[in-house]
Amino acid sequence: MLKVLGLILAGSRGGCLEPLTKVRTIAAVPVFGKYRAIDFTLSNMVNAGISKVGIITQYSPRSLMDHLGSGKEWDLDRKHGGLFILQPIYSRHDESIESFGYRGSADSIFQNMTLLKRGNEDHVLIGSGNHIFKIDFSDMFRRHVESGADITILTKKIDKSKLNEQTWVVETDDNGRVLRWKNSESAGENGEELASLGVYFINKFLLRELLYATVPQNKRDFLKDIIIAKNDSLKILSYEYNGYWSNISWGLENFYHTNMDILNHDIRKELFSKNGRIFTKLKDLPPPKITSIGSICNSFISDGCVISGEVTNSVISRKTYIRAGATVKNSVIFEGCVVEEGATIENAILDKYCVIRSGGKFTGNNEKPTIAEKNRVV
Amino acid sequence: MSRDIVSLILAGGQGTRLGLLTEENAKPAVPFGGKYRIIDFTLSNCVNSGLYNVGVLTQYRPHVLSRHIGIGRPWDLDRNDGGVEMLPPFRGRKDADWYIGTANAVYQNIDYVDSFDPKLVVILSGDHIYAMDYNELIDYHLSKLAHGTIACLRVPVSQTNRFGIMATDFENKIVEFQEKPEEPKSNLASLGIYVFDWPFLRKWLIEDNDDNTSDHDFGKNILPKMITDEKTRLFAYDFEGYWRDVGTIDALWEANIELTRPLPALNLHDDSWRFFTHSEEYQPAFIGSNTIVNNSLVSEGSEIYGKVVNSVIFQGVYIGKNTFIKDSIIMTNTIIEDDSTVEKGVVGENSVIGRNSFLGTGESKPNKIAPSIYKSDLVVVGNNVKIPEGTKIGKNAAIWNYVKEKDFEGDVESGGVVKPE
Known about the structure:
The complex is a heterodimer of chains A (378) and B (421).
Chain A: E1 4-9, E2 30-31, E3 35-36, H1 38-47, E4 52-56, H2 62-68, E5 82-86, H3 105-110, H4 113-117, E6 123-128, E7 131-133, H5 137-147, E8 151-159, E9 168-172, E10 178-183, E11 192-203, H6 204-214, H7 222-228, E12 236-240, E13 245-247, H8 252-261, H9 265-273, E14 289-290, E15 295-297, E16 299-301, E17 306-307, E18 310-312, E19 315-316, E20 321-322, E21 327-329, E22 332-333, E23 338-339, E24 344-346, E25 348-350, E26 355-356, E27 361-363, E28 370-372
Parallel strand pairs in A: 1-4, 1-6, 4-5, 8-12, 14-17, 15-18, 16-19, 17-20, 18-21, 19-22, 20-23, 21-24, 22-25, 23-26, 24-27, 25-28
Antiparallel strand pairs in A: 2-3, 6-11, 7-13, 8-11, 9-10, 9-11
Chain B: E1 5-10, E2 31-32, E3 36-37, H1 39-48, E4 53-57, H2 63-69, E5 83-87, H3 102-107, H4 110-114, E6 120-125, E7 128-130, H5 134-143, E8 148-154, E9 164-168, E10 174-179, E11 188-197, H6 198-210, H7 218-228, E12 234-238, E13 243-245, H8 249-258, E14 285-287, E15 292-294, E16 296-298, E17 303-304, E18 307-309, E19 312-313, E20 318-319, E21 324-326, E22 329-330, E23 335-336, E24 341-343, E25 345-347, E26 352-353, E27 358-361, E28 379-381, E29 386-387, E30 392-394, E31 398-399, E32 417-418
Parallel strand pairs in B: 1-4, 1-6, 4-5, 8-12, 14-17, 15-18, 16-19, 17-20, 18-21, 19-22, 20-23, 21-24, 22-25, 23-26, 24-27, 25-28, 26-29, 27-30, 28-31, 31-32
Antiparallel strand pairs in B: 2-3, 6-11, 7-13, 8-11, 9-10, 9-11
């Protein structure tokens, strides 16, 4: 059992995923059919033996709360440790907090200092609910402890053209020590860059001191005001990750292609069969049924579906009905949708409980998928 | 109100007619319908009917069953008040020992039932696949002011010799009970589902236990005796829904295959009567390109690269390229490698069928050791089996649990049997 406290930042508003984030925070956006984005970081933590996880929420958390419940699907409904939901609170004793809510990642951890003060953990693992990846955190932790680093950051070589403008890239020496931080825009034109993924191992007592030293001075961003600002005085090491990686807050197209990635055999194997399972809320639905008139090609089908139409290159979530004569191509369908008789959808994302009426057409193109927001009837 | 009723599920059945499928398992733990086990249907009926005090009486090989039920969480039966309780036989008292018959099993758990001080007990069997609202049965029982009510199904006269048959009068009061009759007086077959007033049944159980000539069985002893007693009011409840006895391999196969039909008699996708199970966490099913999947259930975690027709594929199954699965049930985590064919197969869990194999080929011949169990041209393969590449296996063949590659001496002809060393 790792003596590590897991913290997952899951409060972001995610304007870049509108309209999917109209009703939910990014961490609660459905991916690969039955999962939510947060399942990946949460399962990675649990699979590494972390049994105490705090989820820091802020923006539109209802859907996330419903998904996490008591944490029993992740074995986090415990007397020792377990799941802590860290919602923003209004404190009338602390005059320095003028407004309701967290005002930055460092502030959100600072306001939950009680969790850092209690418990016998020596280290904190900070992750985000927006990341889709599968990692053995225990190996990263071993490196963190053995190297004597103050902070270990997770990095990955990513092609410059694929970087998001908010990503920071690092330069390291031969031992992996971080020398310089660069905003991805100011980085070189071509080739691969070592991007910081936003996952950190840090000694708990050091984290407390750093927070007390910065947040009361209105420096509230964990990356910029703590890690980058203190890069020279702290030993910050890079741990390079080589596996599959996606940050779904990098826009709708990236989100669409991330879902399509699961149709690739190697990515599927990596995410679901290596280093433990990905857990999610169970719904006890019957197995998917393909009727005598249905046909499926290269698709990912969840429980509770009944497929009577033609489905190609698509990711279908739970309880979706594709009726006779309907065609679904290159699409991502969330839970409970109905594509009625003879309807066609192509290059589309359907949010939960959408209905495409009989004979209807709903198509986008490969560059820009068309999106139906929750409960829409087309 | 819920404390007034206790349900007891008889789940100790050995299920000998299921052959090697129940070699290590009790019958209620036999897998069914892609992700379920047989007992899930009775347990789900209980909670869907609002019956939350459930005792499960186990005896034969209960390990898989105990792990499956656990503390009853999937059925919302992990409760402070009531919930599910496993009731295995125990010793320590002179009247407690292995369960001898169904009535004796209930007799030995009188203390458990008494602890709720209930008005009614519902006696159920964990061996059947059905959807029943027990409230309707209980309402009927109360409206008739009955001492006991037996749920019955009208069966074809040709099948009456397989069931206990109830002859009833004009108000459905049972006047005669015939066990597996050749000349039936009615076609109302007992489903092994009973409601009794507890103080009434309690008295009869104690009386039956003192009778040394009795086999301590509900169908054989208690019910016939009750019916001959003039003061007793026993009624037949006419059940008209879906009910299947999956006590034989071909009945189990048929009930599975029925689920794949366009309008199945038992609709697992019905939101108003859901079936719950202890389900493993698997990713959604992947169906590859250049495949045909037709008229089938394909459970989560499976990867299909071949052709699947009229079949039930359980969780985590792998079907290789150019492999053809027809009219078969393939259970959890089994791998069927490339270029193979399985026709009318019942393949157990965690098995591997090597590439280029053919299951269910050749002419039909009766099985060599148990022609009444392995029949209807089905090929039965057990759990944790490894079938070597290029093996041909005939119809009505039985490949035992844990058979490995070295146990095979070439192909297996129709009716053949392979057992581990």
